[in-house]
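so i finally got all the pieces together for this one. its two components total, 923 residues if u count the protein bits. some of the lines might not be protein, just check the labels. i wanna see the whole assembly predicted at once instead of chain by chain like last time, that was a mess tbh
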Amino acid sequence: MLGAAATWTVPVFLEKTFFALDALAADAATQTVTGKDGTILVVLQMAGGNDGLNTVVPYADDAYHVARPRLRLAADQVLKIGNHIALNPKLTGLKSLYDDGHLAVVQGVGYPNPNRSHFRSTEIWQTASDADRTESEGWLGRYFDNCCSGADPTVGVAIGEETPQAFAAKKPTGVTFSHPEQFRFRSSDPDAGRMNVEEIFFRQLNEPSAGDEGGTVATNAGGSIGTISGKAKNDLSALDFLQRTALDAQLSSDKILAIARKYRSTVPYPQGQLAASLNIIARMIAGGLPTRVYYASQGGFDTHAGQINTHERLMGEFNDAVAAFVADLKQEGNFERVLLMTFSEFGRRVQENANGGTDHGAAAPIFVLGGSVKAGLFGKYPSLTELDHGDLKFNTDFRSVYGTVLDRWLKAPSESVLGRKFPALGIV
Amino acid sequence: MLTPLPQSKWNDATAAHLLNRAGFGGTPVEIERTRQKGLTAVVRDLVDVKNAAANVPPPAWAHPRNIREQRMEIKAAKDRGENFQQKVRQIRMMEGDEIVDLRRWWLDQMLNGPAPLLEKMTLFWHGHFATSIQKVRDAYWMWLQNDTIRRNAFGNFGALVKKISRDPAMMIYLDLQQSCQEHPNENWARELMELFTVGIGNYSEQDIRESARAFTGYRVDFTTQQFRFATFQQDHRSKTFMNENGNLNGDAIIDTLVAKTACAQFIGRKLWRFFVEDEPSSAVVDSVAATIRSHNFEMRPILRDIFSSAEFYSERAMGGQVKSPVQYIVQTSKLLDAPLPAPIAAQNAMRQMGQILFAPPNVKGWEGGKAWISTSTLLFRYNFANYLINGDASLPPNIWQPRQGADVGFGRAAQYAQQIKRDPIDVAKLVPNDARGKPRDVVDLLAKRFFPTPPADKELDAFAKYIQSRGPDVTDAALRELVHLMMSTPHFQLA
């Protein structure tokens, strides 16, 4: 993939080690399950506060039609999944998933003392903290720290410009990129081809220097490339740590680029950022990147005014992107081992506002889908008349969803990640 | 107590270390000048700056506005059924422009201002009293807090905490301005203890509840954008706080906290982590705390002590700290002898590297140290170096895509694409034409400039070979590539 030059610039011992370690890890007693053939979680953030009421619609509830004179979706438009509950008309793909037994709808998800600031509520969801506590590490970061030590840096992959706070960890791990071809070192002369002289020297300079304190790459640590002679990353000197990360970056960049070049989806994807992100994820999964958690996001849900058209478009984009993603996973035989979970920092106010929009709310439904997901409605649809400051009251703590996914899907003890046990849900 | 650095240890390396940590680095010329001046004189210059140094002229737009009136106008237009969205958008755009400019203004102070340590301490306190534009949503308030911090950065810690308790940005960030007798808000009270003074484990939930009552009545005036005190909102009843009893007010709570042994320890440890090393020994923390207490929480004496101590110049500490993103940007501009990156490019880079001024991730501020570095941020640093050295021609075509989202100041990348023009650096400033004879000499000259400690021979050899591989003549382009290679190493990320 890298041309002849690479065979000597990436020393053979490293290449061997890199692949040998995967094999070693598989045999070791303390093996770290990788996403190469283990289960995979995809987290999809709907940023801005998705209107839960017009996503999973309580179409049979009079209070809904009273509170939403302009925004309401009529009973003959919506896609019914129960006697009272229906999906937004644009969510045709999700309806099929529901009918096929692959979509769980968790209703009334939220947390005590809801915060209505985008910034703060997003942080609460990302760190899985109580509303009155501030945590630095994200819930996925704590999962990486607690359950994936020694794992490949690509154990977590976020598609986007910025690493989500959910990935924030004591030992930073995971990679973030929006375009695989940008997640790599770019040499000074952009026209000099893929492997020019500068890049060759760059590679030499970013290898761990053999003989330095800390030793060479371990072949016996039972982990993968993230360890030096069994030393944990946080015990290293700053320079050792940097060298280790530089090597990780180089190797994961090579791997990601190689997969991106080799694996192209045959399933057509729609236009749009979310579809592009899910497409990259499907290709990385197909290519066997050892990732356990992928993260993608869709923006624009802060619909204070003129919600009807905006929300319809967003639902359409979401549905079409997810439908293509699912088709792609099925085609590659990966649907059974992928679980996709949506979340938004809050739902929206029950009563529509004077500008044909809705203001920041609280509890909302989330979707969990995948080949191994148990379909159905979970939790209870919150009452539209017994409100908290005009907002729906939650009945399922979002950390119940996280906990279930951790315990039952990623096979990680949720207590060590979430700090305590939350009631499990039957979604998987 | 800390041990003073022996005279014999004062040399180019220690001088460079001082400039790195007590400021934003130095060029070889500045290092030479610093060494010649002598440690005592240099520390005096850094710490005993005139009060006038804190008188930094504000950005042109930074003056109070009548926010109440602005909001009422919008509401009135809304009520009249007029199109108020455009007005809201206009205000948002202005806010976005202002925060970009505020970041430019501060980076410029760090790079070009007369008092680097004062700016570094201001940065320290900004991370300590972390407050974000994302909630405050007004650049004037963010500037005002920055100004307050700068004016008190070297002064008395207790006095600074009191000023911060009356700082509109902080009051909004931690909901203090909503706190009243009937509903005392505990957000500020909790963080005051957990993050600003004594640290977790040194107070009770009862202390939080009682002190929250003491901080009632603090208000922000939305007409003048200043602090005001609303006596009728204040809880005048008796409170019990850490064994004290009476009609305690906010300042009394702060006095009690600062008097706790845990406070000097907490601040001392944080100072040492910021200026010296990630994992301070308990002995060092004890000495620093003792000095802080013996000088009644005045900051100048402890800063003087730290920068004159042998511990500060220990082998472990020198060149052993990961540069923060802000340090990276400022120091790199200095080392390249080039202007700061365009404001929007600097902002984007801070965002991608994980430290955006005026927008810390949360009230805990930035974790710092190794947390700055991930595979993503490291590769970003390498590629950002390319832009800083070779200019905008080095950027891939689609890197500046418009972003979705409601963030202040981040939403208009497409429009800013024109503002990221940058020329390649003038390498003749770093390597004069007559010094380009031997590749190894060129490498030594540049390595001395760019690395905090001498690189390994293996690295120096690689750099020299690279220059040789680029042909017999050492061209400007080849030198720029060499500088990019040097900056694209783990070693360069350290200071």
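Residues 238-262 of chain A form the longest helix (25 residues).
Residues 4-89+99-105+113-137+147-291+300-418 of chain A form one domain.
anyway lmk what u think
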